[in-house]
Amino acid sequence: MKKSALCLLLCLLLALPCLSVAEQSRQVNRSCRIYFANGTELASRLNDGRLLTEVNGAEAVEHTFYIDPNGQTVDAVCVQYGEHILPYVVQAQDAQGDWQQIGAYTGDYAQGYAAFPARSQRFRLVFARDGEKLPLSLRQINVFTPGDTPAIEAREWQPSCEKADLLLIVAHPDDELLWFGGALPTYAGERGMAVQVMYMACNSYLRRLELLCGLWECGVRSYPDIGTFSDGRNNDMNGAYARWGRENTYTRIVRAIRRYQPEVILTQDVKGEYGHTQHLVVSDAVYTAAVELAADASYDPQSAQEYGVWQVKKLYRHLGSQPTTVMDWSQPLSAFGGDTGFQVARRAFAWHESQTKDDRWQVAYKGSRFDSTLYTLVFSTVGEDEAGNDFFEHIEK
Question: Distance (Å, rounded) from C-alpha 329 to C-alpha 280?
């Protein structure tokens, strides 16, 4: 009996090297050729790993890019767009040399992911929309190997939340990281809640890509609500309201609250963090008007009819003179391999390459002037916080 058991154990140990190990997908576009039909190489601009470079196509019915994996087996691409977004199909040649569709991206997101049957020969992406002559802007084409675990750069965005747990409303891209620290990694990535992020102003297509990369790093998978209000500084809050239009501001936020139906809203400091007047407007509009108006069917009847009215349960502002809530972003998060919320947020902020050149800005750590762990509960239908360490205290989840 002992001899039989020993033999069985030895057989199992010898078999271990043969057991398959789950392989993670890898981004390999830097070792691929990307080129036009005439042979013009685009590697230096479309697979250099940087969002700052761009290829612009003049108006055309179709825009075609060829990709040669150089013998590597690949099964997905993710296109990072600039200003102009077009859907695309993935095509490969059959035995007769005819191009056949093997995959497609049909959305309007600024990052467009498409999977297809694994292949190691060249294929092409054909961008077009309904036979119209339209321009196209590309900043990167990322190419991926097969794997059980997708690469972090393979961003297959889900639609914006139909029903959000948490709605974070900020003025600009990177505000969601600088002032709110580990909130997104903790609630979206670690706790798996439905988190919707909303930006009022984003006037740069580069910053749009940067914010998408940062959100994905934090575990957010619902495509953000990206506004087009103009970005700029004014002398005071009245000037900032005049820039956006007070009613336009209220209506924009009210419609978002009704559309996403959040249980909890987070927004910016009553003093606008460092006094940025558009931060002030966002904080003021959400607190003094939008939360109440979203529950009033007589305000903006069109969105009331489309989405229904909505009463949020809790509203928190960042900071405040006497914060009611202290969050701990220093706890290890299993969803991020033990990294803390602070660490994930800082890594996400690094995607904001256009902003990180200014050393003044970094994710606000505990005890700093703009401490991202401090919040004030300024509205609640479920009572005051007691423990004061969870935005969802007194809300069943």
Answer: 25
